[in-house]
Design goal:
This is Dehydrogenase/reductase SDR family member 6. It is an enzyme of class 1 (oxidoreductase). InterPro entries: NAD(P)-bd_dom_sf (IPR036291), SDR_DHRS6-like (IPR051122), SDR_fam (IPR002347). This protein has a domain of about 140 residues: Rossmann fold (3-Layer(aba) Sandwich), CATH 3.40.50.720. Helices cover about 40% and strands about 15% of the residues. It contains 7 helices and 7 strands. The strands form 2 sheets. The protein has a 5-stranded parallel β-sheet with strand order 3-2-1-4-5, with helices on both faces. Strand 1, helix 1 and strand 2 form a beta-alpha-beta unit.
Length: about 210
């Protein structure tokens, strides 16, 4: 018997990285997973896993979210994972970069919650998990395809990788699968008494 048996879970950014690992972890624990992303090719790979159905979805588009909601009668868990980290300082960030980041990282969560929360209220149950980066004064880093792309884009990728590793308190980066374990806990009945909490995976930076 899985920890998530019978739960209907909708998550964003499921095509790769943390989203993909989380979708797979949810399915392994018995959930019915609706995995969404804009990357059709990568997303379709998840169809090979029992319990996962995929939908192409741009979480910055209200109309697409509302259309998807018409297909979903019940939702037990909503996981907002989609996000983008711009490399560099504010001096390297153009206005369009700022707008894109806020639209994807913040507004998309508003749109998803605004659309699916009424279903949870109607059924008198539900769980919303929002993910965000802690890359600030806390330098916990997760090894994902997007991180690797950022590293490769640097003038000296080898040095950039060494710099990322050097700032990790336990000497390595987190894996997407390690983050997925937390998602399973938060989506399960085991965390039923947690509400409005912030949980940080930072490799020791909070100590």
């Amino acid at each position: 018997m899985g920890r998530l048996d019978g739960k209907v879970i909708l998550l964003s950014a499921a095509a790769q990285g943390i989203g993909r690992a989380t979708a797979i972890a949810f399915a392994k624990e018995g959930a019915k997973v609706i995995a969404t992303d804009i990357n059709k090719t990568k997303l379709q790979e998840l169809e090979n896993y029992p319990g996962i159905q995929v939908r192409i979805l741009d979480v910055t588009k209200r109309e697409q979210i509302e259309e998807l909601a018409k297909e979903i009668e019940r939702i037990d868990v909503l996981c907002n994972i989609a996000g983008f980290v711009h490399h560099g300082t504010i001096l390297d960030c153009e206005e369009q970069d700022w707008n894109f980041t806020m639209n994807l990282n913040v507004r998309s969560m508003y749109l998803m919650i605004k659309t699916f929360l009424p279903k949870m209220i109607k059924q008198k149950s539900g769980n919303i998990i929002n993910m965000s980066s802690v890359a600030s004064s806390i330098k916990g880093t997760v090894d994902t395809p997007s991180l690797q792309q950022r590293i490769k884009a640097q003038p000296n990728p080898d040095q950039a990788l060494k710099d990322f590793l050097a700032r990790q308190r336990i000497g390595r980066m987190a894996t997407a699968e390690e983050v997925a374990h937390l998602f399973v806990y938060l989506a399960s009945e085991e965390s039923a008494y947690m509400t409005g909490n912030e949980v940080v995976i930072d490799g020791g930076w909070s100590l």
